[in-house]
Automatic annotation (TrEMBL):
Keywords: Hydrolase, Membrane, Transmembrane, Transmembrane helix. This is PP2C family serine/threonine-protein phosphatase. Gene3D superfamilies: PPM-type phosphatase domain. The lineage of its organism: Bacteria, Bacillati, Actinomycetota, Actinomycetes, Kitasatosporales. The chain crosses the membrane at residues 80-103. Residues 136-368 form the PPM-type phosphatase domain.
Amino acid sequence: MSRTATLSSAVPFAAVLAYLTGIVVTDLVTPSYLRLDVYAALAPVTAAAVCTYRQTVFVGIADFLLMAAHHGVLGDDSSAVNRVGAVLGNLLIVGAAVVVARLRRDGEALLERVRATGEAAQRALLRPLPLRTSGVVVDGFYVSSQHEALVGGDIYEVVDTPYGTRVLLGDVRGKGLGTLGAGAAVLSAFREAAYHRPDLAGGVVATEEGLYRYHRSAEYQARTHDAHAAEEFVTALVLGTEEEAGAVALVFVDCGHPAPYLIRADGTVRELEPAEQGLPLGLGELLPGRRPGRRIPLPPGGRVLACTDGVTEARAPGGRRELYPLAERLAGWAALPTAELLARLRADLARHTGGRLQDDVAVLVLERAPVAVSG
């Protein structure tokens, strides 16, 4: 147990013991007809709710011994039947408190195991940032709108391939843990396509095919309970790098996703409009052909910030409910290092929403990896 946890459990334990001691002492110095000792039974009950199992057992034993001594050894003017009844009643309350504390301890242990298992599974789905390839560093942050969940409806991945770095940022329709199936299908297909499709547009097609396979799977049909249920779609931004003669270009394909921003070394910020506002993954069958990509030079020191609509559509609480002014904020923070920019953005977003996110949030910043200097 950590020092903080030990301290947090010691404070209520000390308070319960102080209460028990105070009740016993007060009962001894006051007239017998007041019968304040009945309130001592609150000590083990309270301990069961706020103390550890061992502390509850200690409080229960102390309470029972004090009450047994008070009604047996010390005695009072009441009849033997009343005294035995008081001791037995106290024993029942102590026993019940210990049972409750045991159930609470077992429940917390089970919850901790489930949380650890869920965290491992979610970390396998989305790797911790930052992620580095041979030429690019991608940093960022992820905040799920679902309490105590590490991931939700937003997904991301960074893959180092023979054709350059491939980056995916997506948002499954809906939010929370119910979207993990479609998200996992898209991520798996993207990872595979990134290695086998040299062109970015072809990789997008292969990624979408993975989502279609998931829609046809028994898992999806069982979850929706309807073979004709509306299929999930995923808005996504797929980015890739191309290097030629020392110059790096950024290629990106839009699939119904918010546009990325180019942050130049001189502090200027520009929104990168896609070649065409594409449809989300899962709706590509409605298109006459592949989604087109846009290619732009990545200037030295330049960075590309991409985010999900959990940022761009975040609203302030209250009557006005203004949208989060991302472009305005980035213009003021453009000169900051990436780590500080992300910290500012995360804190400011929480401040803007009053700590109540309406949707999952994912932010990625892509920049060229520093060149190692050989000694």
